[in-house]
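Is 6-O-phosphono-beta-D-fructofuranose placement plausible here? Inputs below.
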Amino acid sequence: MVFNRLPEYQALEAHYRALADVHMRQLFEGDAKRFEHFSLQAAGLLLDFSKNRVTKESIDLLCQLAEACEVPQKIKDLFAGNFKNPTENRFVAHVALRNSQDTPFLVSGRDVMPDVKDVLAQMSVIADQIRLKDWLGATGYYITDVVNIGIGGSDLGPALVTEALRPYHDAGIHCHFVSNIDGVHIESVLSKLHPARTLFIIASKSFSTQETLLNATTAKEWLQKTLGKNALARHMLAITSHMERAMDFGIEPEHILPLWEWVGGRFSIWSAIGLPAMIAIGPARFREFLQGAEEMDEHFAKSPMHQNMPVILALLSIWYINFFSTRSYAVLPYQQLLSGLPAYLQQAEMESNGKYRRQNGDLVDYQTGTVIWGTTGSNGQHAVHQLLHQGTQLIPVDFIVPMLSHDHLGDHHRHLVANCLSQSQALMYGHNEDEISKKLVDEGMDREASKLLAKHRAIPGNRPSNTITFDQLSPRRLGALLALYEHKIFVQGIIWGINSFDQWGVELGKSLTHNILKAISGEGQEIDASTKGLVAYYQQHQQQVTNR
Ligand code: F6P
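Reply from A.M.:
I modeled the complex. Tokens:
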């Protein structure tokens, strides 16, 4: 069953043709209750999707498409522990990580809940020891700084959550994140720290990621140089599915927290990978974070398609990607604390759904994952929103804005919210030439000049956006928000018929890096002329440094 061969898809195509030239202004003029008709609430989040190019019929047809693609059954499979990532022969069961009920969660027939609860308890013990200054380093000092070394899902999630929940940091522990293999990254972090007071968390599901291992080796040498050979015992933890590799690296077995094969890297923030965030905010608040995700899980598992927030988000994205042929999607958090969200969602969505083959190996003949990008508002308004308003591409937007602030300044948040709402209004409503030209003439401009200027100033509008809001950015709401996007990505993958849970596309680059490293050190490698030229240019520069 290929989604674009289904009668439900054809019905949507016909509907698209009928709706393509309708301006959202008309839709709002025709329905004073459009906000009520096109908004949903779940897990403390409100999704206003009224500023989309949809009617009630569009939503009905999109939901029929979801039904025809068996989305409800696949959601059941996910929560029953029956959903598989076949190309890696793994189950997909990250939702078990936030199951707080006393119910088993069977993955391949085995209840994983005892392990999940054990690890959560282990994390809590470690976090509390560090927070209460009971975790002493090799020379008897307590820990003031935690450095997470990881990349991709082993970095973006913990970095996002730790920063987003900064107002809840209450133990005076500073968390740092090193991901890039560029030595400037680790060097700049270490330059501010003292080994006696620093604890490293080496976060790597595979414990074979080149960047992470090189950074971990640098950290190890930095520790040992000052604290001696046995420093790792009190200054390094690991989180991995490959305990033996972490032990070979020199990390004490009791300081290695497990990660299971059924947790994909980009879905792992709910696991021990979340440890830096737990250290910063405390175990109780970390459980609230899990609880928020669980609330979204319940909503996702139990709500019909029409009222299902992740399903609606996914269907709207498919409406634009597959019918309006959009090529990118902007995520614009109006909350400085969420500055890491666009990067987190880039990995979540682009690594999951950047696929060109269906589950059965056939090539797709439709668009799948799109480019996700974004930046915080209101900064983006003075940098990139020009293209959203007047560029030639249609780019759907998610605005994310909490209703209450964490600042103590009174006036800022009101302005932030007003900026956010005005952007979605401008995208939807636009400003037409006649209105602008009339205003310019009223202000005294010559009619011909006003017409030309109005052409440049006009904003077409009819550009879609969702607004996702909630009371305040708290651990619970953040959990719900991240789970919302995870499930959106899941539904997209089901409808497109692709495997959202592998990432084979990143492997070739990894193996080529090894070949190029050999070429750089002069071990004759068969390489193309361009790469050969660049390697030679690199060697030339290295030689100059050596000769200095
Ligand atoms: O190379 C891609 C990737 O495997 C991501 O999927 C993952 O989040 C990241 O690298 C880090 O992997 P690991 O946790 O195994 O170091």
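Short version: The domain at 113-259 is CATH 3.40.50.10490 (Rossmann fold).
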